Amino acid sequence: MTFNGNWKIDRNEDYEKFMEKMGINMVKRKLAAHDNLKVTLEQTGDKFHIKETSAFRTLEIDFTLGVTFEYSLADGTELSGSWTMEGDMLKGAFNRKDNGKLLTTTRIVQGDELIQSYNYEGVDAKRIFKKY
């Protein structure tokens, strides 16, 4: 499957601005911008297993496309939502539990890069990963 593999963060675009809009304090934003995030993605049909490893935590997530699940960001923000597949793009729609506001995210593989894009209240950001 397209997403399968081990991915390591290569660079960010507007990620700190996005985190600020999310309400993440400056210290956590600075740390998160240099988290050395590694993501392992395994897709089997409509089921995904994801392992995220960073300087701060290791987390494993299992989800099925179209099925709502709970997720906590590294800063503790709790979300509820689901992923869907549109063509070659994973699209996620998650509502924050603390204020109900929508966070959208996409994942797409382009060449040897996995591009994860975020939008929260009109602020866009990207995290670009390379296979390793």
Shape: globular
DSSP strand content:
over 45%
Low-confidence stretches are: none
State the order of secondary-structure elements, H for helix, E for strand: EHHEEEEEEEEE
Q: Secondary-structure map with pairings?
A:
Layout: E1 5-13, H1 15-21, H2 26-32, E2 38-44, E3 47-53, E4 58-64, E5 69-72, E6 78-86, E7 89-96, E8 102-110, E9 113-120, E10 123-131
Antiparallel strand pairs: 1-2, 1-10, 2-3, 3-4, 5-6, 6-7, 7-8, 8-9, 9-10
Structure, described:
This protein has 132 residues and is mainly beta. Helices cover 11% and strands 58% of the residues. The chain has a ten-stranded antiparallel beta sheet. The longest helix has 7 residues, at 15-21. The radius of gyration is 14 Å and the shape is globular. The protein starts with a strand and ends with a strand. The model has no long low-confidence stretch (mean pLDDT 94).
